[in-house]
Amino acid sequence: MSYKSGIARERARKRRRLMLRAATWLAVAGVFGALGYSSYLSGSMLARQEVSRLEEAMERLRSQLQAERMDTDRLKMELAQSREAGDALKRRYDTNVPSGGLATLVTLLKDRLNGGIKETRMAQVMRDAEAVRPCEERVLRKRFAISDPGVSFLDGLIQVSASAPAGAEDLAKAATITVTRVWASQPIKATGFPLHQSIAINNVELKLSVEASDLRGYGSASLSVCGRV
Q1: Does position 229 have pLDDT exceeding 50, yes or no?
Q2: Rounded to whole angstroms, how far apart are CA atoms 62 and 153?
Q3: Measuring CA to CA, which residue among 168, 169, 191, 170 is closest to residue 179?
């Protein structure tokens, strides 16, 4: 009986050791499980916080992008308005500010008005002006001595003379040609023969040529005329 009781006690001790080991392993597993679960919870919380942070950053970027797009659209609109205003200003400038030949005419008109010619006189001249037609039906030729009074055409309306320095060897180059028109305040002057000049009278264009004559010391003037002159 005592032998059987010893065996039973040994078996009981073994069971207790096994149970203690199992309990120890379960405790260790529980600790590691708790740690793992805690880490999982902490990781999940950190992940949610990171996701929230990233979502907030994305939302800020979306807002900035939208604001930049609005600024870009506004700048495009301002640029289009500026270009339109510039084009309108250029059109007004081209319309109101003369250029080329028109600018020359405006300058000439201002000079005449500043010189004392009345606006009514200038307006009448402009109304009477017509397209100039060439006048070449016949040619008048006259010879004149250099440094003399010269010759006149059309009852004195046009006068031609030439002068040269004393002792000049080449009169053709040294002569100063003067063409006077009674209706013009300033004569036409040129140095040296020949001189070819167009002169408009009553909307017809006359051709004046002043050349050196075959005779030394003389010049020759020719003027094209027609029936209306």
Answers
A1: no
A2: 91
A3: 191
